[in-house]
Backbone:
């Protein structure tokens, strides 16, 4: 199945994949360590150490190839970031929230539809493999967060846009970028039998903010989605999910089918949004402690 790179490194959400392996082999080279996790033909390679997100996607893939001859040499074609918000209430991830089409005809044990699921990777297609990773992520994320061609007729609309612009600025800042990235590679055959590949790089950005400011951003996303736009594009429904629930479910079910993932999440967390579409990358990064950070970037919303 051809993956969608519109928002995330998640692929194969419609497949039932049970073949999984977790490689703990680590190759040390120039301060870099490399680990991998796989499910079928999907391979998650986590590059840890002196990883600089200002480097190009192709140079980071070259670094992985130098560290291990087994790394697939596919051209990088997508990039995104998992943005973690550290607040006094706990840690949260931001993402686009929607129903899983694979669960359309299935009900939860409660007899109700399963909860919505979240794609926590904010990004998209790479304009070029030579584009710096961070620049590519921000270029793809900015129009999704701020939306395009909005009609800002009221002070409230301008205030909401100002708050979301502050979020983008905080993500863009040098501080808070995790020195680890996950490179998701896969290969498959299209309907004509031609080989296709993907190579999606996922970074992690840490932000520290108050719970009040996180709540303000949550409301800003809701309000922003209601603003009129001349672009003709449907707004993305952004939301937050608790990091612990998301990572626990990803680690527990990344090799399972879609119904099993949703059922286990429902049994543990009820109607809470817990299942992530980009579960493989989330599990691989969690295994490599990528969601812990001592020096996140500071986000403080100013009054607009």
Residues:
């Amino acid at each position: 199945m051809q993956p969608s790179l519109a928002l995330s490194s998640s692929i194969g959400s419609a497949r039932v994949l049970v073949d999984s392996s977790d490689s703990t082999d680590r190759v040390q080279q120039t301060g870099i360590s490399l680990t991998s996790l796989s499910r079928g033909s999907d391979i998650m390679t986590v590059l840890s150490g002196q990883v600089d997100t200002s480097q190009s996607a192709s140079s980071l893939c070259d670094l992985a190839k130098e560290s291990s001859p087994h790394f697939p040499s596919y051209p990088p074609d997508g990039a995104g970031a998992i943005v973690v918000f550290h607040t006094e209430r706990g840690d949260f991830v931001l993402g686009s929230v929607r129903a899983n089409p694979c669960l359309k005809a299935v009900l939860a044990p409660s007899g109700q539809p399963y909860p919505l699921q979240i794609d926590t990777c904010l990004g998209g297609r790479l304009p070029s493999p030579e584009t710096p990773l961070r620049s590519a992520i921000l270029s793809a994320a900015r129009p999704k967060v701020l939306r395009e061609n909005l009609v800002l007729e009221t002070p409230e609309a301008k205030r909401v846009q100002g708050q979301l612009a502050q979020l983008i600025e905080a993500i863009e800042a040098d501080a808070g970028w995790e020195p680890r990235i996950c490179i998701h590679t896969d290969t498959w055959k299209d309907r004509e039998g031609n080989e296709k590949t993907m190579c999606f790089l996922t970074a992690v950005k840490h932000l520290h903010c108050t719970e009040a400011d996180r709540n303000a951003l949550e409301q800003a996303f809701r309000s922003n989605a209601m603003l009129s736009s001349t672009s003709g594009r449907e707004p993305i429904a952004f939301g937050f999910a608790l990091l612990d629930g998301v990572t626990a479910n990803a680690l527990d079910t990344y090799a399972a089918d879609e119904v099993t993932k949703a059922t286990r999440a429902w049994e543990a967390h009820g109607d809470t949004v817990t299942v992530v579409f980009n579960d493989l990358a989330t599990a691989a990064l969690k295994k490599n402690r990528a969601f812990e950070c001592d020096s996140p970037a500071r986000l403080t919303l100013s009054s607009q």
